[in-house]
Amino acid sequence: MRRIAISNQRPTTSTAQIPAALLFVAVLGCLSAQTSAEEPAKSSRSSESINARQAAANLEKQFWACDYAATTRGVGLDEGATCGEVYEDLKRSKFQSDFRAMLSWWQQNKAAQHLALETASRSFAAPEADQVTSR
User: Cα(67)–Cα(91) distance, rounded to whole angstroms?
Assistant: First the structure.
């Protein structure tokens, strides 16, 4: 008779792989990000700097919308593909393609960003007291 050894031990995984996998899943399952039309290029450096900051801020908003949607409700493939592009653009522009730096930033900011999005969605969905009528 041949004995088969069965173990209750899980396969070993790096602790860095778990948050990375969660981030990857979140990004792939995100909202469809809406892009705004770019203004024509301006000659002054200050205008370029302002536009770059606005684009970066917009990219961050899109990223957090994707992350929140993926975490709370899940999304489809098209939305996930769009969010994957947002993720890559943000990683490249804000973190110079440094995944670990982005992961650390994500871990530090996720709770606050998700709370802000949750609060905003609740205030948008809830009717104001003067709009509610009783019969």
Answer: 14
